[in-house]
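Q: Structure tokens for this one, please.
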Amino acid sequence: MKILISRNKIKRHLRIFIAWSYYYSGLHKILCKDKVLILMYHRILRDDDEAKLSIQPGMYVTESAFKKQIKYLKKHYKIISLKKLIDLWNNGADYENKRYCVITFDDGWRDNYLNAYPVLKKYNVPATIFLATSYIGTSNWFWPEKISYLLLNKYSETISALEHISHFKNGLQDISETISKIIRNRNNKGTNEQIDSIIERIKQYPLQVIEDIIDQISQKIGITIPAERLLLDWTEIKEMSNNGISFGSHTCNHKILTTVTRNEAKKELEESLRLLKEKELEFVPVFCYPNGNYNRELQKIVSECGYVAAVTTKTGFEYTSPSDIYGIKRIGVHNDISLTIPLFSFHLSCLRFET
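A: Here is the predicted structure, written as tokens:
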């Protein structure tokens, strides 16, 4: 354990050193020319928000870090809306010696309104938020937040329940043994890494099976998921829509569409698109794949349903035209790899850092 901690510390400090060297060398002003950076955010939390303790590390950026990032992007990039980017691609605009940036948010978290929107409005920066429409205006939580809540409150009891619930066999590979190997430790307390591992393993199951499992665990260990609204409501969305924020689809129920039937995927795509149009918002007909999962068949369905493009979680730049309009690459941003501007600028370069 001490050796592992030591290696992690060395890796972290080495990354910081390389990032600072990259930033102060001025390379960050050169390497991203003639490129389009589409950034992917999820949650923006207050610096003192205790919710950080129960959220996956890759899911958030602090408000102060986000403000610094927007100021940096304003200085070094031309920030445009996703709609404007699609128009530029369609019209064959001249990109020479330009650096474009598009800002996107996945899911539709309420803190996008509370913490990100004031910053975007202050600096007159456009952005697009992809909404899981069935969750909007409700107190329903996404299932990863539910399982994280249970694990953080009663780790050992939740693990015991996970290992003995029969639904895990449900015609699929029984993963209880794998989960046991991944997540047990001597302190009977889950780390972020262990919770992430559990969530990743459970993702292979149908949404209804996962929700049934969580309900059973909640009853068994005596914990109720709080009735707290974590997602946006339509009033907040309407206000943002009137002030430079556009909205796209992230399905209705945040289902991983590669795990459902073609008809079910099509229904999720069509219904979310219909609702967004009905709401008369600043709407962009671009789809965002939940969990980043997609394939050629799903891309075809997205096109058939009337979307002009789709974004992924695949890391990389785009250029004067996208390599795949229904598989647009983005760069995910989260706090631990972008807390300082040198770290942020190095992350945007997409240069690999491995030890």
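A few notes: The chain has a mean pLDDT of 86. Residues 143-221 form one domain.
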